[in-house]
Specification:
52% helix, DUF452 family protein
């Protein structure tokens, strides 16, 4: 489980304690199964090819997908940036609180 713990630390950054207080207890195998099921569902839905984002929210402290890589990936899409890690409370609050 050390690999998963390292990933979680990198994913959460300054939000680690908050995440750990809410984290569901699942084994790495259960997480892998969940991601595989999600992949299968999205791949079979046909939705992924027609899906469009209104805005991509980029965390400048993201250690999973570095901000510079995200900027390149989201070319042509409106972006909002903030000082937050990959799993940052700020990102979620922005995403659900937008009024545009």
């Amino acid at each position: 489980r050390p690999v998963l713990d390292k990933f979680v630390r990198r994913m959460c950054g300054k939000n680690l304690e908050e995440y750990l207080s809410r984290r569901p207890e699942r084994s790495p195998e259960e997480l892998k199964d969940e991601l595989a099921a999600l992949y299968t569902a999205v791949k079979g839905s046909g939705v992924c090819c027609d899906f469009r984002w209104d805005v991509a929210v980029i965390g400048r402290e993201d250690m999973i997908f570095p901000a510079e890589n995200q900027r390149r990936a989201w070319t042509g899409i409106r972006t909002a940036e903030m000082d937050a890690p990959h799993y940052g409370k700020e990102l979620f609050e922005y995403a659900i609180g937008r009024n545009d």
